[in-house]
Amino acid sequence: MPLSRSANLIRWYFSLALVEGLAALTWLLLIPGEGGRGGVLHLSTSRLVLVAPLTVAVLGLAWLSFSLWRNPAFSEKWTQRISQSAAKARLYWTVITLATLAGIVALGLLGFGRSITDPFMAAYILRLTPYVSWVVLLSFQTLLAMRALRYGWSLAVFQPYRKALLSGLLVLGILLLLSVILLWTGAGLKPDAVGWGAPGVPLLASQVFLALAISLAGLALGGISLGVWNGLRDRPSLRLPAPAMDAVICLLLWMGAVWRWSAEPLKTSYFAPNPTPPNQEYYPFSDAAVYDLSAQKLLMGIGFEQGVLRPAYSAYIALAQGVSGIGLNSVIAWQVPLLAFIPPLLYLLAKALHHRFAGLLLSVLVIFRESNSLALAGIADVSNAKMIMSDLPTTLFAILFSLLLILWLQKPGERRIYPLLMGGVLAIGMLIRIQVILILPVVLLCAWLVMRRQTGLWLKSVLVLLAGMVLTFSPWLWRNWQLTGKNLIADSQPTGAIFRFSSFGLEDSARLPGETDEEFLSRMRASAFNEVLSQPLDTTGFISAHFWHNQVATLLALPDAFLVRPAQEFSAADLARWNSLWSNLREQCCSVETYVRGLPYWLGWDGRLARASWLPLLASLLLVSVGIGAAWERWRFISLLPLFVAASYSLGNALGRISGWRYNLPVDWVGMLYYAIGLAQVCFWIATYFENRVIPRTWQSGMAVPSNAEQAERPFPWKRATLVGLAFFLLVASLPLAERLIPARYPLDAMQFAQNLLLSEAGAQGLDPDALQRFLGEENAVALVGRGMYPRYYRASDGIPHGNWPSYLPQDYPRLGFILVGPEAESVILPVEGPPDRFPNAADVLVLGCKREKYIEARLVTLLSDPKAVISASPPRSWSCTPP
Questions:
Q1: What are 693-714's pLDDT values in tens digits?
Q2: pLDDT tops 90 at residue 644
Q3: 301: left (phi over 0), alpha (psi -120 to 50) or beta
Q4: Confidence at residue 567, expressed as pLDDT on a 0 to 100 scale
Q5: Residue 487: what pLDDT?
Q6: Minimal CA–CA distance to 271: which of 392, 388, 390?
Q7: Domain 750-872, CATH
Q8: Longest dimension (CA), the chain
Q9: What is the CA radius of gyration of the chain?
């Protein structure tokens, strides 16, 4: 009688396994032996040890396959046993799990074997390759066979996902077409002469697998815990609601981010150079020092400078140091917990667009990525949570704004207060980095696309959003009006942007005699504008190049290689030292440092893709496409809002002729968002296939919510809006209020105060009062009082060659350099033969010296906490301020 379909399946399964086993055995026997000898007759003892088990397995499969084909009754008996086992859910999922793990491990071993360069180890890996390849094939066919035995071959269960799949394929086609165009034209790949940054900090493929495992384990543990909790509660009112569950997850993610990022040590980087005597401490440098010095001025009662760059961020730095003490560690202690809200916010955002699993996966990936950023400080261009930089705070506000935007547009008629929240958040974000204003026009357009059938509600919501912005801005606008007579939000430091925007550099860029700052900037703007008009094609070219470079950089932040060739070879001696072997394996194959050194993208990329990146990048494009398609199937235009936010911000950077690196950091999480959604969706599809039902259970055909559906319009919550508006107003008003309320640390006439103090202590310091008086009467002689920041001692020819900080530039003599912050902020250089015994950071000091072109050449420095503690120039300099 004819056999059942299941019996035929079992027959072919074991027959195929036999063919694969014979191929693996033949492969193993044909591998050349030592000295180039090969073949069956030249088997070494080690080869026999490998061949014997495989031979036994092949013989067993041969007998079993022959019996299955020759004896129908035997075949039906085996089929019945295996089918009964597959019908048991616990045994079925155990086999599925084991086969999946075996396949993943085997594929990893195959990839790892290609990276081994030591001949001794390569020989062993080569002999294991037939075994491993056979395991890969067996795992794959076992997964297919088990599902077919339990549910058959029908794929009708995927019908609810049909639209999401088609949407993903359409997006994939668009992305592949764009990729071909970029590869053909070189746009976004060929470096521009100005402002061309490296891609963002990468994620490793191993970290993606680990994040997936953590998320799956968290999902399973959460489901078990929730079931136990709800099972112990008889009353429905005591059951754990969804918001409470999300709050618990967010708290755990926040705690995990704080723990993981705090565990990474602070490393030397461009924005925190190597510690030096006398204190051996990390101090901020470049932009980080600019923001911190603004905070110091606020703490000293001087107030922000008129054109403060990042007022909200500098105020936060001042608050941290005002409470916890002056220093980088105090800022880090406050900043890491603040920035640790990024993973929970991204969890909520991905959950709003897709599912909790996608949110959990995304947040774990972001935690890993920031850990990579902390580990790469000083190796690649990074901006991380332990730097005094505005990039990650801007990221935090961009994510919060995007979350509020999506939640509002999902229910615009109910959540009418959300536009007010968005306006306040956007205004504060602009006080951190003013470029975020470029998000607003695109957001308003996208909101209209979603609410086009409710134009009246859209218009009222836009007015509420703008009102929230104006209300939040008003205290700062009033402050700037009082100082400048102009309605300025913040000084965006236009000089650098002007020079970057110029294609060939501006002629006559030197300041003219008697020219004010405003006149100089006005002349430079006019010159740059004329050059842009005269060369529109060049301007359009570099703007488009930088825009697409931001998109390429976002893609390269995803895994670019499955394995990277080790920088060092494994020696044969390592076989006897398994601890050393494991350490080498972990450091050379699985470390982010090895990753960035083994790929060309972070250390001087010329625009060409590495061969190892083609398949991983295609996989990333596929997952991003699936993520966009899955989100689109549920929310239509709302699902694309993060894309529009990222595109508008990237375009703003391109207009300033900058891209990549930290400049794109506030929005490059968008690529990871859709990547995580795509990976979660693929996991749902895999679970749907093996469970033969739609996963998750709540997803059914037609679940998508039309984005343009009219919703009931609730009354505007005036009372809550008043409280929210007042909170935003007071938050920003605290900035100018602090400038007025914090008492001045030094008298207004600080110069006269310093001179009087110096003359009164001259005798105790061994100085001649008359000679000192004559010195102070010279034209360039100065006596200043203030806070000595970032003291660094350098030997002759040492220093920081980059940057425009005279205190730390290399000189041909040993010296102590620091920044004097007070009524007058100055760079100070004190020539000394050795580092002082005592000069704490942020000490109140009195400086006596000569005014040079860009710095103060000090003759002596006195600590005000101990006027007898005098640090004099050595060897002694003449008491004269004649030109050096």
A1: 888 765 543 344 444 445 678 8
A2: yes
A3: left
A4: 42
A5: 61
A6: 388
A7: 2.40.50.140
A8: 124
A9: 33
